[in-house]
Design brief:
The structure is a single chain. With 578 residues, this protein is mainly alpha-helical. The chain has 30 helices and seven strands. Strand 6 (547-549) and strand 7 form a beta hairpin. Helix 25 packs antiparallel against helix 26 (457-470). The longest helix has 18 residues, at 241-258.
């Protein structure tokens, strides 16, 4: 007596034929017949007279299974094959009778079929295949026999027609929702269970049973819930573009509803080239999650969301914030149709970008006119512009504690020794609770300025190092902090290390505030080292007119109106006043 257990495609029928060939008994094969004829045939069988072969016992009706169980109890030699799951009492009863007979062909009565070993995979390939070819075959087939045999004849390990046909037959035998689950798994999106069930239109408590059914059909890897790569490739190859878009859209909607790691979800959808409406919302959600921690990646997700059809008004606030964090121009006039909260985010980002471009009064006016916490964010720019009365009034408006602490410290900058401890405290608060908005400047930068003014270069460097480690202010602030470190070293007489910091910024696009500081530092080092050529180049760097973008000019002419609102900024000038 023997029970051969294996998933579809594992070689159950092949093993059945091997065992039949090894016996001297006459063979009786039980097929899908039912009724009196089968009962009459089985009733005549005597122990020791024949071997009964039952392939795919899990497919037989209950009455046939009961007849076979009675025959097994009489001691008639029997070999059955089945899937791993015992899904009915009648199948379990037959399995018990066959496996527990003492005269089994296989010791223990149960033979479990396993994936091919590397030696068996090697034998499928051409003589002496390279080891990497065997590894590729194992990765593509997961060692599953029917898949491995089909792929072995494919030079590029592309599913051949016979494998695609086998997969299609397996899907046709499944319920519609389970087949949909197979198609979603074939996209290899790495969905969590809740999203996976929703995308396949299954109830959460149905997912486990459906997954087990896919495993029994031989579609999943042996040691996990993922699909065999070649099987997934075969399923995807049979999907029409409409089906694929529908599956991706369902998956994206399920991901949005389930939450979880939206960045990983967006990555999977992008790898599948999803460009549906709900995929765009996943890209947007991933960008929103990354906009302050990784603005460059967030910007690429916003671009993917736009390509997927997300409306520009839905992306405007996030794009403005990441642009300001990357030091790129930001339009100060928000587009029409924005919700009030989104409009405020755009204005705050525009005010921060104006501060980066050294347009101090423009930044102060923009932030002061914005909804809270705009006025509190305007305090550093107001102080820098000498508008102390407005700064003191602005500090009384609503704002998070961390921003208020920074603004209060800025009001004491006329006394560096008094301002420094307050700015250090504000810097520590920003590190502990980073505000989800673009800062026009960082407490670390202003704290470093106050520390150098108070002849405490060590504290200045410590503040700037902490800012870089915490990522305070985003990528655009990294350049500011490095330039201020160079300035601190210049003030301390360490010209070589100051110059080393400047060289790290060679060929780096900088906003106007940092370009001015770079030019000043270059001139300062050149003057102290007696390098006249470098001093002349620093002066040319300072006086050179530059445009950040066709719609935004970083230079303001103090004698005439600024041209920044013009569509293009191409007026050349050689006046020494510039």
């Amino acid at each position: 007596m023997t029970v051969v257990v294996g998933v579809d495609g594992a070689g159950r029928s092949h093993r059945l034929r091997q065992l039949a060939a090894a016996t001297d008994l006459s063979v009786v094969t039980v097929d899908g017949r039912t009724g009196d004829s089968l009962g009459d045939q089985l009733a005549t069988l005597a122990p020791g007279s024949c071997l009964v072969l039952v392939d795919d016992a899990h497919r037989l009706p209950d009455d046939t299974l009961q007849l076979l169980t009675e025959v097994a109890r009489r001691g008639v030699a029997m070999v059955i094959t089945r899937r791993p799951t015992l899904d009915r009492p009648t199948l379990a009863a037959l399995d018990r009778e066959v496996a527990n007979q003492p005269a089994g062909i296989v010791p223990g009565g149960i033979e479990q079929l396993h994936p091919f070993t590397d030696a068996e995979l090697t034998a499928l390939l051409s003589p002496d295949p390279p080891p990497e070819r065997v590894v590729e075959l194992r990765q593509a087939s997961a060692g599953h026999p029917v898949v491995a045999v089909a792929l072995a004849s494919s030079p590029e390990l592309i599913p051949p027609p016979e494998l695609v046909a086998w997969v299609q037959r397996q899907l046709a035998l499944l319920p519609a929702t389970t087949a949909d689950l197979a198609r979603v798994l074939a996209l290899r999106l790495g969905l969590p269970d809740a999203a996976l069930a929703a995308a396949a239109r299954l109830a959460p408590d149905q997912l486990a049973a459906a997954t087990r059914e896919l495993r029994d059909h031989g579609l999943l890897v042996p040691d996990g819930d993922g699909m065999i790569p070649a099987v997934a490739q075969a399923i995807v190859a049979t999907l029409t573009p409409t089906e694929r878009r529908r599956l991706l859209d369902d998956a994206a909607g399920a991901l949005l509803a389930a939450g979880g790691d939206l960045v990983a979800a967006a990555t999977a959808l992008a790898a599948a080239h999803a460009r549906t409406d709900r995929a765009g919302q996943v890209y947007r959600a991933a960008a929103d999650r990354l906009r302050f921690t990784d603005p460059a990646t967030a910007l690429s997700w916003y671009e993917d969301a736009s390509a997927a059809g997300v409306a520009p008004t839905e992306l405007a606030a996030g794009v403005a914030e990441v642009s300001a964090l990357l030091g790129r121009p930001v339009e100060l006039d928000p587009p029409a149709g924005l919700a009030p909260a989104e409009r405020t985010r755009v204005v705050l980002a525009g005010g921060a970008a104006a501060a980066q471009q050294a347009r101090t009064n423009r930044a102060a006016d923009t932030l002061l006119a914005a909804e809270p916490p705009g006025p509190v964010l305007a305090v550093p720019a107001l102080v820098a512009a000498g508008r102390l009365g407005e700064a003191r009034s602005a500090i009384d408006t609503a704002a998070p504690t961390v921003l208020r602490r920074f603004a209060e410290a800025v009001l004491h900058v006329s006394d560096p020794e008094a301002a420094l401890p307050l700015l250090i405290e504000a810097a520590e608060a920003v590190e502990a609770t980073p505000p989800e908005m673009v800062l026009p400047d960082t407490p670390h930068a202003l704290g470093a300025v106050m520390a150098v003014a108070a002849a405490d270069v060590a504290t200045a460097e410590q503040l700037l190092r902490a800012a870089e480690q915490a990522g305070t202010g985003g990528p655009v602030a990294v350049h500011r902090h490095r330039l201020l470190r160079a300035w601190a070293r210049l003030r301390a007489g360490r010209y070589d290390t100051a110059l080393a910091e400047l060289r790290r910024l060679a060929d780096t696009p900088l906003p106007g505030r940092e370009r001015l500081l770079l030019a000043a530092l270059s001139a300062g080092i050149a003057r102290r080292s007696g390098d006249i050529a470098r001093l002349r180049e620093a002066w040319r760097m300072r006086s050179r007119r530059w445009c950040a973008a066709p719609w935004t000019c970083s230079w303001q002419n103090p004698w005439r109106s600024c041209w920044w609102r013009r569509p293009a900024c191409s007026r050349a000038t050689t006046s020494s006043r510039h």
